[in-house]
Automatic annotation (TrEMBL):
It comes from Photobacterium atrarenae. The lineage of its organism: Bacteria, Pseudomonadati, Pseudomonadota, Gammaproteobacteria, Vibrionales. NCBIfam families: tolA_full. This is Cell envelope integrity protein TolA. Residues 109-215, 227-255 are annotated as: Disordered. The chain crosses the membrane at residues 6-26.
Length: 382
């Protein structure tokens, strides 16, 4: 659609140029009659200034319409880029949330593993307690065997003497009482052993419960990883769409640059056509030259203000300068910007600011426009 508008503008411009040339040729006498001796005859060609002004005004209106269409297209491209940037930020937020969920699952797995270690330590202590009880029971059994041996010795001595038997019988009763106590202690140790085994069984149940919690945490981590992969795939798809949109934007910019170059060539042809008329007007007095110089300085200051507004100022830039050369189209569109002299960092930032402005306002006067199309500006942050 933009190419059709430019084609229509080119056709209209060529028609107007043809009418202007026809008007010029209409008033020109191409006859080759020999001069007559009767006297000198002076023929003059009259160009209607009103017609020239009207045609120039129509050409300017066509240029302004083409400029407005170009500005609208650039605005739409900026809106599309902003929408893609918002989508990219949303994808990054979702990935950060997914990462937080994964860290939470890993923390739960570590806690389950620590709990499992604690249960294993409790089981080990219970087994030690069990072995301790068994050792004490063994010692009690040894004591019981010793008591039985003593009992047998007492019975042997009792057979030797009645008096001794009675004494030994009393000792036997005493030994049996001690054995009974030992048996009670053994039963108590056995009960302690059973209690320890019950505690170990409970500890094992707790370990199984913790192991189940760990498996659950690992399952949640697996699900979170699958979700992360799905989010990553969605992000890659969005990135592919962004690259596609970027390629379309670059192609549109290439076409726009081609159209701008065509427009520049047309403007150059028009400027060459009107150069003679404008030069004659500029030579009418020194006031015209001063006016051109003043207007050039005024618009240079406007350009500097626009660049300062777009400049990303760093504290290190204060007190430094950079000289930038700009080459502009007749409608103010930036064609090229280069660093001439000054601080390297400030020059890079200044060049970026010039690109952000992209199109500068231009005056109506063609002579001032011509001086502004190739201009040097000094950028000095204050």
């Amino acid at each position: 659609m933009k190419d059709n508008n430019y084609s229509a503008a080119v056709i209209i411009s060529l028609l107007l140029h043809g009418l202007l040339l026809a008007a010029l040729l209409w008033g020109t006498d191409f006859s080759m009659n020999k001069p007559q001796p009767q006297g000198n005859t002076i023929k003059a060609v009259v160009v209607d200034p009103a017609l020239v002004s009207q045609q120039a005004k129509q050409i300017r209106q066509q240029r302004e319409a083409a400029q407005k269409a170009e500005q609208d297209r650039l605005k739409r491209l900026e809106q599309q880029a902003e929408a893609l940037e918002q989508q990219r930020l949303a994808e990054e937020n979702r990935l950060r949330e997914l990462k937080a969920n994964k860290l939470k699952a890993e923390k739960a797995a570590r806690e389950a593993e620590a709990e499992q270690k604690r249960i294993a330590e409790a089981k080990r202590q219970a087994e030690q307690e069990k072995r301790r009880a068994q050792e004490e029971a063994r010692q009690a059994e040894q004591e019981r065997q010793a008591k039985l041996a003593a009992k047998r010795k007492a019975e042997e001595e009792a057979r030797q003497a009645e008096a001794a038997r009675q004494a030994k019988l009393a000792e036997k009763r005493k030994a049996e009482e001690e054995a009974r106590k030992a048996e009670q202690e053994r039963q108590a140790k056995l009960a302690a052993k059973q209690k320890a085994e019950e505690e170990a069984r409970k500890a094992e149940q707790e370990r199984q419960a913790k192991l189940e919690a760990k498996r659950k945490a690992e399952e949640e981590a697996r699900l979170a990883e699958e979700q992360r992969k799905a989010e990553l795939a969605a992000k890659q798809k969005a990135e592919e769409e962004r690259r596609k949109a970027e390629a379309e934007r670059k192609e549109a910019e290439r076409k726009a640059a081609k159209a701008r170059e065509l427009q520049r060539q047309q403007e150059a042809a028009l400027n060459d056509m009107f150069a003679g008329l404008e030069a004659e007007t500029e030579q009418r007095g020194g006031a015209r030259g001063q006016f051109i110089e003043d207007e050039t300085q005024r618009f240079a200051m406007i350009f500097q203000d626009l660049i300062q507004q777009k400049l990303l100022v760093d504290e290190s830039f204060f007190g430094k300068e950079c000289v930038i050369r700009m080459r502009l189209a007749a409608n103010g569109l930036l064609l090229d910007a280069s660093e001439v002299d000054g601080d390297g960092a400030l020059c890079r930032a200044s060049k970026a600011a010039v690109v952000k402005v992209s199109q500068f306002p231009m005056p109506e006067d063609a002579a001032v426009v011509e001086k502004l199309r190739n201009i040097r500006l000094t950028v000095s942050p204050q």
